[in-house]
């Protein structure tokens, strides 16, 4: 029987036990025992250790069952080989466990087997297990530190879910310095049973959580993960993801261009975009997003109009450049009355346009004038205050003034005090008082843009398969027997079922006859399931202008490719306007993935492609085409007619259906797809289908 994913008792326990509690300083069992009893946690606390009568002055029990009452949550800190017995013995007393112990899937084959055995036991006993090999969890609002991390964060509205315990500690340490609070911090370790998807669903319903921030090293339940994010975003939560391994070697190519283009990181980004999550590139961006998320108000609309106040021209110009480069934010146009008032109150050399440059000798009075005037201007949504500490700059006084003004206005004031020791105290005071300070204006504004840009979530649930079409494809594949790919004729037959136009061809393997009525100029190509990259292997001959040249080309290709099953096909030489590639691959985590972008022989050189996670809607495809890497094809760049967006969108849509409806298909590649901005129809010239083999 599958247990309901209700984690209230686990993460908000009225009673908690530590199995393996220790009185020896430095041991994890001692650290956890101390943490649980050091932060005003109001629930009952029990220690279990058959080798001790007391720990930290509290009675020790020999086992969970000896406690004699139900316990909401048990923290297990014993060698991995004992964990299974402890859970088996204690399952009648407790149904929620946190396994801190290592020695499971992270250690190799023996550990993996131990973890699988533990998972089977958990399902049999209907218990929930966080971990194993995790840090534990912290819930500041109830004073609970059920981990071996030192201290307890401030109370906030961000839930942190981390696959790495060490990084969770680092996040809390930095947050402590910046006075950033959390609703919960949870380390998922090996995520044997409870992973990111389950916890996103939990915090989606948590009224104390506004932002869900995740650090991940890998995903093993792609569909569940995306479903959970989509639900959370639809419910108004912001989901921020920092994932390790952006620059790791992409997944092994699957013999087609599609495979080499669609590395795992590209797919991960496309998946997050599909469901409306925000992706942080690094720790700096991660913290900026989390910090802004704590203060974000839904009354900010796209574009957010930014007013800048600075005492240094350089940082002001750099921040202006950052605004110009980011969708969702723009420099506010200060009203004439604001500019006139500033001109009357500031030195003649000061700039009263945006950014408002107070000059390097600006004291408290100029900063106060500049900030107050921007607060009063209806054209300004956010005020960004920049400061560099000149000799005479009263840094701390300016910080105090900003704190006071932020308390009096509903407009958000963001700051960036650029310097070292001279600005440290001022930054600390602003952090203590809830004023948003960022080391980098660019990172800060990027966070603003990320939050205000509208994110549409798209369904990731598979639609009903068209059975007649799938049966036809199955018959073709069955005839292919042990082949790893299909012949061009077979690909064309399948493409027709999905309304994809493929270039006309003639099979001249066994010669010609008058009925063929081959037109010139034409192209001769080798057609063999084992020859995927024809051009690279010299399997394409062009141009061919008459029957004699065609017969000669046919002979050359047959002689060059003597592998069994080789065929020679002929196609018309069509005019080339623009070449696209559209491919499908089956990702092991997220399922069907479409790659679409500039094609031809330079596909892997330019890599101007976009990624789509199937299933798809036409609206989703059109949005990406209009905003992605080939959007210039549809905006009439340099006076050229726009290409047919609807036609290309339908081809991408049907390609996705082809891959999803037919699990026997491993990958599909159209390269090139010739597209036109005139009356000619878009047509697939080269079409490959790779098959899954046993």
Question: What percentage of the residues does DSSP assign to strands (E)?
Answer: 15-25%
| Low-confidence runs | 248-262
**Which CATH architecture of one domain would you pick?**
3-Layer(aba) Sandwich
Q: Which sheet architecture does the biggest sheet show?
A: 7 strands, mixed
Structural class: alpha/beta
Features:
694 residues; alpha/beta; Rossmann fold; seven-stranded mixed sheet; 22 helices; 30 strands; 36% helix
What does this structure look like?
The chain has 694 residues and is an alpha/beta fold. Among the domains are: 1-133, NAD(P)-binding Rossmann-like Domain (Rossmann fold); 153-300, Succinyl-CoA synthetase domains (Rossmann fold, 3-Layer(aba) Sandwich), CATH 3.40.50.261; 303-452, Succinyl-CoA synthetase domains (Rossmann fold, 3-Layer(aba) Sandwich), CATH 3.40.50. It has 22 helices and 30 strands. Strands 3-4-2-1-5-6-7 form a 7-stranded mixed β-sheet, sandwiched between helices. The protein has a 7-stranded mixed β-sheet with strand order 9-8-11-10-12-13-14, with helices on both faces. Strand 6 (96-99), helix 4 (109-125) and strand 7 form a beta-alpha-beta unit. The longest helix is centred in the first third of the chain and has 17 residues, at 109-125. The chain is flat. The chain starts with 7 loop residues before the first helix and ends with a strand. The model is unreliable at 248-262 (pLDDT under 50).
């Amino acid at each position: 029987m599958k247990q309901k994913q209700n984690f209230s008792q686990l993460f908000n326990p009225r009673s908690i036990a530590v199995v393996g509690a220790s009185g020896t300083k430095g041991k994890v069992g001692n650290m956890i025992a101390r943490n649980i009893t050091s932060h005003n946690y109001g629930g009952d606390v029990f220690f279990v250790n058959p080798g001790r009568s007391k720990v930290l002055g509290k009675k020790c029990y020999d086992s969970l069952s000896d406690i004699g009452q139900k316990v909401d949550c048990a923290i297990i800190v014993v060698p991995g080989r004992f964990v299974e017995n402890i859970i088996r013995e204690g399952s009648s007393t407790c149904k929620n466990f946190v396994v801190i112990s290592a020695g499971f899937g992270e250690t190799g084959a023996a550990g993996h087997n131990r973890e699988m055995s533990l998972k089977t036991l958990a399902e049999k006993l209907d218990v929930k297990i966080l971990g194993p090999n995790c840090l534990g969890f912290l819930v500041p609002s109830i004073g609970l530190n059920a981990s071996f991390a030192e201290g307890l964060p401030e109370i906030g509205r961000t839930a942190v879910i981390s696959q790495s315990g060490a990084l969770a500690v680092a996040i809390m340490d930095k947050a402590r310095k910046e006075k950033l609070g959390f609703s919960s911090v949870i380390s998922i370790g090996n995520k044997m049973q409870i992973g990111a998807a389950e916890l996103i669903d939990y915090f989606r319903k948590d009224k104390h959580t506004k932002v869900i921030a995740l650090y991940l090293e890998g995903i093993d339940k792609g569909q569940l993960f995306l479903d959970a994010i989509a639900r959370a975003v639809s419910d108004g939560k912001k989901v921020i993801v920092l994932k390790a391994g952006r620059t790791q070697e992409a997944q092994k190519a699957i013999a087609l261009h599609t495979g080499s283009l669609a590395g795992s990181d590209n797919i991960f980004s496309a998946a997050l975009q599909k469901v409306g999550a925000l992706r942080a590139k690094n720790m700096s961006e991660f913290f900026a997003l989390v910090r802004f998320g704590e203060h974000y108000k839904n009354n900010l609309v796209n574009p957010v109009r930014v007013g800048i106040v600075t005492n240094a021209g350089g940082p002001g110009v750099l921040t202006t450049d950052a605004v110009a480069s980011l969708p969702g934010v723009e420099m506010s146009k200060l009203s004439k009355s604001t500019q006139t008032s500033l001109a009357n109150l500031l030195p003649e050399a000061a700039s009263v346009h945006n950014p408002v440059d107070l000059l390097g000798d600006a004291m408290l009075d100029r900063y106060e004038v500049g900030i107050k005037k921007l607060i009063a201007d209806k054209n300004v949504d956010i005020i960004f205050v920049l400061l560099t500490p000149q000799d005479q700059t009263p840094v701390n006084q300016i910080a105090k003034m900003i704190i006071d003004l932020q308390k009096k206005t509903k407009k958000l004031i963001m700051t960036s005090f650029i310097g070292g020791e001279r600005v440290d105290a001022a930054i600390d005071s602003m952090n203590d008082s809830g004023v948003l300070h960022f080391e980098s204006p660019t990172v800060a504004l990027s966070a603003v843009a990320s939050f205000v840009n509208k994110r549409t979530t798209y369904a990731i649930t598979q639609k009903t398969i068209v059975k007649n079409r799938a049966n036809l494809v199955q018959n073709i594949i069955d005839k292919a027997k042990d082949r790893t790919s299909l012949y061009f004729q077979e690909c064309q037959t399948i493409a027709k079922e999905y309304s994809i136009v493929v270039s006309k061809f003639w099979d001249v393997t066994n010669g010609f006859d008058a009925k063929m009525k081959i037109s010139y100029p034409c192209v001769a190509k080798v057609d063999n399931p084992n020859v995927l990259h024809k051009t690279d292997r010299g399997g394409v001959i062009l141009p061919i202008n008459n029957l004699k040249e065609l017969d000669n080309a046919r002979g050359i290709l047959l002689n060059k490719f003597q592998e069994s099953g080789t065929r020679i096909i002929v196609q018309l030489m069509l005019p080339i306007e623009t070449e696209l590639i559209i491919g499908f691959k089956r990702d092991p985590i997220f399922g069907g993935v479409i790659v679409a972008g500039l094609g031809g022989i330079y596909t892997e050189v330019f890599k101007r492609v976009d990624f789509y996670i199937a299933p798809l809607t036409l609206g989703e495809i059109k949005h990406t085409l209009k905003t992605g890497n080939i959007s210039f094809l549809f905006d009439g760049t340099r006076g050229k007619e726009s290409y047919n967006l609807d036609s290309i969108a339908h081809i991408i849509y049907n390609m996705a259906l082809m891959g999803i409806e037919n699990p026997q298909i491993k990958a599909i590649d159209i390269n090139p797809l010739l597209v036109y901005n005139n009356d000619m129809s878009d047509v697939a010239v080269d079409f490959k289908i790779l098959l899954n083999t046993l």
